[in-house]
Amino acid sequence: MYKIVISFFLFISPVLLKANDGYKLWLQYLPFENIAVADYYRDYLENITLLGNSPTHEVIRKELGISITGFFEGRTTPNISSDNTNSGLIWIAKAEDLPESFRNLLGERLNEINDEGYLIKYIQGKILVTSNSDFGLLYGTFALLKNIQTRGKLEGLDILENPKIKLRLLNHWDNLNRTVERGYAGFSIWNWHRLPHHIDQQYIDYARANASIGINGASVTNVNANALVLTPEYLEKAAALADAFRPYGIKIYLTARFNAPMMLDNLPTADPLDPRVQAWWKKKAEEIYSYIPDFGGFLVKADSEGQPGPHNYSRTQADGANTLADAVKPYGGIVMWRAFVYNEKTPTDRIKQAYDEFKPLDGKFRDNVIVQVKNGPLDFQPRELFHPLFGAMPNTPLMMEFQVTKEYLGQESHWVNLASMWEEILQSDTYAKGKGSTVSKVLDGSLHQYNLTGMAGVSNIGTDRNWTGHHTGQADWYAFGKLAWNPESNVGEITEDWLKMTFSNDPDFVNSAKNISLKSYETLVNYMTPLGLHHIMARSHHWGPGPWVTGGGRDDWTATYYHRADKNAIGFDRTENGSNALGQYAPEWKKVWGDPETTPLEFLLWFHRVSWNQKLSTGNTLWDEMAMRYQQGVEGARWMANEWAKLEGKIDQERYSHISSFLNIQVKEAEWWRDSCLLYFGQFSGRPLPKGVEKPKHDLEYYLNFKRNFVPGI
Amino acid sequence: MYKIVISFFLFISPVLLKANDGYKLWLQYLPFENIAVADYYRDYLENITLLGNSPTHEVIRKELGISITGFFEGRTTPNISSDNTNSGLIWIAKAEDLPESFRNLLGERLNEINDEGYLIKYIQGKILVTSNSDFGLLYGTFALLKNIQTRGKLEGLDILENPKIKLRLLNHWDNLNRTVERGYAGFSIWNWHRLPHHIDQQYIDYARANASIGINGASVTNVNANALVLTPEYLEKAAALADAFRPYGIKIYLTARFNAPMMLDNLPTADPLDPRVQAWWKKKAEEIYSYIPDFGGFLVKADSEGQPGPHNYSRTQADGANTLADAVKPYGGIVMWRAFVYNEKTPTDRIKQAYDEFKPLDGKFRDNVIVQVKNGPLDFQPRELFHPLFGAMPNTPLMMEFQVTKEYLGQESHWVNLASMWEEILQSDTYAKGKGSTVSKVLDGSLHQYNLTGMAGVSNIGTDRNWTGHHTGQADWYAFGKLAWNPESNVGEITEDWLKMTFSNDPDFVNSAKNISLKSYETLVNYMTPLGLHHIMARSHHWGPGPWVTGGGRDDWTATYYHRADKNAIGFDRTENGSNALGQYAPEWKKVWGDPETTPLEFLLWFHRVSWNQKLSTGNTLWDEMAMRYQQGVEGARWMANEWAKLEGKIDQERYSHISSFLNIQVKEAEWWRDSCLLYFGQFSGRPLPKGVEKPKHDLEYYLNFKRNFVPGI
User: Fold this and answer.
1) Interface pTM, i.e. ipTM
2) What is the CATH number of domain B526-572+609-704?
């Protein structure tokens, strides 16, 4: 007996040794690190009262069981009472289910909780978690668990949270054959072949993870859509997913191929104003709702990159959206209509086209349509300005589309904290109603009183054992949920919470890893696209550098279209003298960005054509500054790898090594970017590399000929 | 303290509650079920001496750590001494590293151990695990751990094992884009894009699992080969895999596309007798070995289903194989040349063609060629006779190709214990040298004194979290390894060991689950292809029934070519009066199978055309017997599901539910097979269903029109 008790006290080291493939995400519920910590939480966790009965209550009960088993390593049996005379120390119940004495104690605060919100309040030695809805209660439970996971104090807790945005969705660009467009973490987790008969545990864990960060919807199929998903064969399968997700508060959305009436039922047209087409969508909606009574609605990519759309019939985007919106309206469904519309035949600067097309349609959409706008006007580049539509559509609700998957950011093997980028966008000021009219306020509806609000994240999830390829891709998923719930959330706090829940509460680890994470975004921009460069990646798969990409039929898909480098200068003039994309922004910005002297260096070449030997505010010429930033990026990546190496032994070896291995790839690829871009642009600048910038490892020829087969994600 | 100690004693229930996705396969190292069991093994496991230093010793050390952590749930720290004066109770060391006193005690027995074999011997209160090689020691360690996992006694252990077969390989039909031909467990686990820089933990766990069952080679790419895998880009990646696998005794093999000299280097021909082609292969081999010094060799599919081969140049299969064999010979490499050669233009019965082509070439292959023959002459049907080449090639080594993935057996969602089928094949008598000339003896080389021996299994592994889709697919992987090590292994024991190591030692569970497993094969044959029916599945994806498949350009890929049903009769006459495929077997078999009266009912329609109202030995007409067998199959599947349902609570809920869910699919699909086949064949027989056979749920039209998109595995 002596031996057993002793070894029990050594229980930290096995945790570090244990295999951990990261599948549990931020819901690791890691064991309490010592007896004191365990004892602090024990009394509370062993005395829980959960009132009410619904499938969501069952989910709450299970989650408490999983977490308590984790915290105490199975050494205590979760005992959750459903008796409202119980002397529980944690009470979890909707307001209407609480004993009146508690309701009276909470008083007015109860009225501040909205549909999906919750209140956690420490009162008279007990912790109350309450809400107006089942889902609010689930969110509250996860919030309490997060508090424990991050080792927060329980006494004095007083948290009232309401989501600031209504539609908080993941967009999966998953094809029915399970490939994932721009997916770098393996293949689609949706096994359509086994559906509807087999509901995999992974679907449940997916729903748990999403619910834990407040995500309440999932569009499960690619925006480059296959109409088959609207047939009974697939509706039955989608319904099975919807059933599995329902208790977690997650609605299913499907992508609608605009010409589905033609593809599925041989209609002669998909013209949105043709009564046969309108009738077809109405019937289709009726059919869908017979399978999925709470179907969320459609997500549509039209008139873009080969997808059919209203243009084919000389109709507007509003005509298209409204026809689908009318069909789902009777059932409470919505349409998310993407603003990512552009065409190589339009002679205008590509980044201007969405604004030109949608701005005149402001106010012409049905009230159950929301226009989904990418964060920037080009396409998920490492750094872009905010999209000029934000602030420009006061009468049409706009929702944000962020890309959680890293199409242009090194794909899955680079550590880059996307929340840093998203924060930059969300805090950008549109000046739509004067100073302080941030993108964040457009999105939460407060600026224009939108009736619908939303944020979508293009998912980075796949069949990889850790879901996201890079373990830190989980942080992006997590942060997306948190920012969708509240776009004003602090990114530092999000990062810190995620690290604690996912890896360890060891402050040395948390501080160092947080530091790496928060520096990762700027580092990546430096080694990929410093000074406002954009769209200089390899063709088609978008992995690695390709500043030399030119020709091939679509100028707007080449690098030279965007950087326009020649012997004298580099950059795209988007001022009044050029494409005047600048004209789509507020006057306040025109002043700043209209002049290269006042344009922040991060956006210099986005707006201006600048000569190679132009002196910049840093005192360096443009060429020297560019070279030095590429070098800084490489050094930043090396620094990340070195800092991480110091953390060995502080977390489990399996995830430590995995991240190390990916950081080594990141350093190599940062060098690849630097060397190939500087060799390529150096041809034009004709200038030597400044001091401190390493000589490229190979000649330009080598990089031009570097070709890899079967790059994933296409 | 009281509370902690108490709850420690309850440690079984958390194991049942814990999430278990099956990733750990049969290397679960489940916690000891009670203190008595733990105490019995504790003294041994806490006193281990491991002598010697090599990467494989490091692997052994880690495996001991993992297993001990598992057995004791991290409550004891593995302490493994490398000091040969230690008083360890378990000694693990190669014979040459053992102290002389131990060597003297073992005496003559040491000489009985071959290169890869091992001896486990209890002697003077200690357990000795010894071998002549590092890999033998690894196999011995896994054998000892298996003994503990299955709760065997340690005192008195005396196990001497040498593998009976030299080449024990998995064949992965994995494409470079990560799709898997005939793969039903997701996608390829080989992430070529991340190689060579990232070695995933899954590769290591793959190697551990294989080593634990004696597999010593892996051909990692599809036999429908892409020549790119022979380029430096991919050789560098394959080399990284080889490096990862090496300490586990697993060699890498690659599939060679026969016209690679043309595809990669624009040679005008791939004629195996052309000196330029021969020089090309020699240079290619030199290149490959510069990347992978212990490269195993090539696996080749030629002149089959669209693959190029020696036929294109009017050369023989021996000509083709020998050219490649000469290239790898200087490095110790081999060529595995597949006998699966057939052609729709050859007018002969498809199942005769491989024998006709290869038999005359007996003795014409180089000594580093081994011909790889599928278990049966058609193509991995639910039930086939053994291939007539076995026993017919005394001067050319033959190796077995079994299909671990279940292309024709319901794919991943049916529980069918493939070892039952394999045992039937291995124990079949070829009569090549009189009675007792079993396929097993052909394979182990004892019948014809082959210098090379081998067994290959077409892998069922994919990205699914449990590796194999169905949890019981792991049993097929496990059993394949065990039978490759020793084709005389007892299938009942294999099944029982696997159940214990994978799920639980609870005898109620083990007995019931074993019973289900051992009945599963006959059940499946009954609901799919009773009475010798074959190749009656759906076109192309081979999922589900398709007895109506006809036309389409290749008769030998249709169902009607094989069953030939009409109003009078059904079956393929392969006697002397028909195709005389029978003539390829020994005279002893011609007597038995030449007469429908003496042909076992399992092979009746394989050899004979039989009229619908022919009375069989069972007393039933052919039609009634067929219908009743389909019904029996369905009832068998239902019985399996019911028996399994009784086991809830005896193992972890996650895997219990997963298997339940798949069993429900199996029952549905068994009904689908029965209903559609009986409706289809009933058209010809014109007879009513006999009593006890349920009426089909739908009409034939329904089944004919049943179509599913994106069936996996193509």
Assistant:
1) 0.96
2) 3.90.1330.10
